[in-house]
Amino acid sequence: MKTPLHVFKIGGHVLDDETSLQQFAAAFARVAGPKILVHGGGKGASELLHNLGIAPQMVQGRRITDAATLDVVTMFYAGKTNKQLVALLQASSVPALGLSGADGNAIRASRRPVREVDYGFVGDLAAGSINTDLLRGLLNMNLVPVLCAITHDGAGQLLNTNADTIASAIAQAMAGSYAVTLHFCFEKDGVLADANDEQSVIRRITPDEYAQLKADGVVSAGMVPKLDNAFAALTAGVEAAVIENALKINEPIKTVLCRS
Amino acid sequence: MKTPLHVFKIGGHVLDDETSLQQFAAAFARVAGPKILVHGGGKGASELLHNLGIAPQMVQGRRITDAATLDVVTMFYAGKTNKQLVALLQASSVPALGLSGADGNAIRASRRPVREVDYGFVGDLAAGSINTDLLRGLLNMNLVPVLCAITHDGAGQLLNTNADTIASAIAQAMAGSYAVTLHFCFEKDGVLADANDEQSVIRRITPDEYAQLKADGVVSAGMVPKLDNAFAALTAGVEAAVIENALKINEPIKTVLCRS
Predict the structure, then answer these.
(1) Considering only CA atoms, which of A203, A210, A193 is closest in space to residue A260?
(2) Does the annotation list B120 as a binding residue?
(3) Which residues of B touch A90 (CB under 8 A)?
(4) What fold, for A3-257?
(5) Considering only Cβ atoms within 10 Å of each terminal Cβ, which end of chain A, N or C, has fewer?
């Protein structure tokens, strides 16, 4: 039987608020066994860009990462967010070790090809992007890898990558040697049947039900890439995928995505 | 016989210039066997502070690290400098893995007590500050730890620490299980007998000779802490200490500090 491994992804809301972050750290400390944490960025990176006079460039809802923007988001995600998170987790007795994708060649990406849009220094993942030997080695040292969403191309170039994609790719890559549960954490308790009713958490969703929820417009546009990622992970061998509240990861109410 | 371990420290000049940094990376790749790299910060951190309207506060030549300054230097050292360096080293086939002192509890420090001066969020090291188990574990995975000079107090607080002090402390702590050579790299070829003659490298200095050089004012004020650190490391069991040019680490001209 494979050893269980929990891969968590947290994003903006919990990272922007010190109290929330401490609450998450305490809850995360209570998750038993090997675990990996992936984090996105919060509002802080946009504020820092603004304070430095770098106007955020968005195309189709995506940030264009020019060289100046890459510098700033690397500093913010890999420097500030990652190190503050690691220090907080260490204070909560979690043996956290922060990584960018460059560290130990943890995540190798390739710069997104220019088609209609040049996204700039944005990295896409492919099969073999995740250095599973490194992650297994760190887990065997009883460390908890904490990854930010900065990757590298192996030729010295850092790249900005979507954190949900990284979490899903890690879960899939590690599924060869662990029974992986992928946890997408956000500010709600799960996928809601009624966007205006926080109590309407759908406790269980199959791929067929997901198709129907999308067709009915129940799942909001912002949630679709997250759920697509999670279902893709299940198809690729991840044991379980969960959508849950970052501040309630030890509590029973959440959305569990099922293979069938 | 103990396995050799090389601990290198690089600082401002080489970090501020991309070409120099690539030259260093290529030279560092040629150093055989287990190795650890510690880096300071360059001019970039001061520029970033300036661009964000945070005036650098200096007392007796030391930067006072208030909360805003700590945020910025953490971003710069642990985010930008460390990750760019790691990505460059990876491109040079060095299996680099970047760390702050918080990562894996690599370096635990305590905030400097307030006496005449409140240095702010500055961390001092004590015996046991260096997590030798972590560093040995990473070296055993054939990784090359690359440490920035940001430490933590174990209670969630990041701290700014002198990079020379960190390199010396790592060399001393690892001397229990490795035959350690400590390399302080800077922009000159070694300690100069004549500050105006770059060719006047003193090839070998004993503690007695060092005392004389200090008394004669041959060693400049800026070099004294570096040499004090290096001789302290020798006293504490480090096999050899070297003062050399960051861009000529594979070449024979350098200053070797001797126990006697």
Answers:
(1) A210
(2) no
(3) 102, 105, 152, 154, 156
(4) Carbamate kinase (3.40.1160)
(5) N
